[in-house]
Amino acid sequence: MKILITGGAGFIGSHLTKRLVNEGHEVIVLDNLLRGNKIDREIFTRIKFVDGDVRDSQLIFELSVGCDVIFHFAAVLGVDVVADAPVETMDVEVIGTRNVVMAAERNNVEKILYASTSGIYGHSAIENALTEEVLVDPRTSYAMAKRYNEIYLASHHEEKGLNAVALRFFNVYGPHQDTRMVVPRFFEQAAQGKDITVFGSGKQTRDFTYIDDTIEACVRLINTEGYHIVNIANEEEWNIERLAKEIKKITSSNADIAYIDAPKKRYDYEVERRVGSSKKLESLTGMKPETTLQEGLKKIYDYNYTS
């Protein structure tokens, strides 16, 4: 297939790019490289790369000509960055997605797979694993824009027959992720013997999904028909304190764990409990994420810290 990936040089996008290229697909990557280029050098020579902005409608139209699938992963990422730039965050999401949808419909692209987020759930249904049917509770500009785009895609499916999947990612982690995110930040602090800084009590929980499982789910969902919202979650709940202790153990670090107050601008992003259900993913694709957090963390350690 011929596939366009917006945001394809980022963490998840670069892993997806590698997978699709190695499967023999023709891949075009659009990225503005504000967070660098995470695509392997060897893979980079086998794709068409365009340095550009997803808000450029003409560019999106031109790049999607002849494409079978668009993975729309371009976004403003990172809690601190998003909190400081809510307008740009929403512009990139709303304008970018509109451009992708318009181009897909004009160029008869068969499928859009859109990077949504588990952040859409906000503080809702914290006692149970979150399913796609739960009433969502977006609290931030980022989550609100993601939810808007889910509805926008659904509307185009209902009115114009667009095939699309909104991928609700749950705390994806793995090699090549930058230290704005909690797992690589803890690894860097532990490896350097610095305090491993945990916001609050560390009792808040998350559902961490390894990158290889995430990419496998994305690729399998290409084959679905219609419109779907799909969680990609590991269904395993870990608190942040335990995560810090596990990374400290894996790295044999003497670093202390320091508990600090979260910055005020992170308030809306701090959820006490979050774990997702991947039952719908399994029903659609026959798979669900199975890499345990211990296994995933060991893979990161072996990749980054052993020869």
Which descriptors apply to this entry?
7-stranded parallel β-sheet; 307 residues; alpha/beta; UDP-galactose 4-epimerase, domain 1; 2 domains; 18% strand; globular; Rossmann fold; two-stranded parallel sheet; 11 helices
**CATH architecture annotation name of the largest domain:** 3-Layer(aba) Sandwich
Read across the widest sheet, the strand sequence of neighbours is 3-2-1-4-5-6-11
* Biggest beta-sheet profile: 7 strands, parallel
Q: Radius of gyration, rounded? A: 19 Å
Describe the model.
With 307 residues, the chain is α/β, with parallel strands linked by helices. The chain contains 11 helices and 13 strands. The strands form 4 sheets. Strands 3-2-1-4-5-6-11 form a 7-stranded parallel beta sheet, sandwiched between helices. A two-stranded parallel ribbon has the order 7-10. β1, α1 and β2 form a beta-alpha-beta unit. The relative contact order is 0.13.
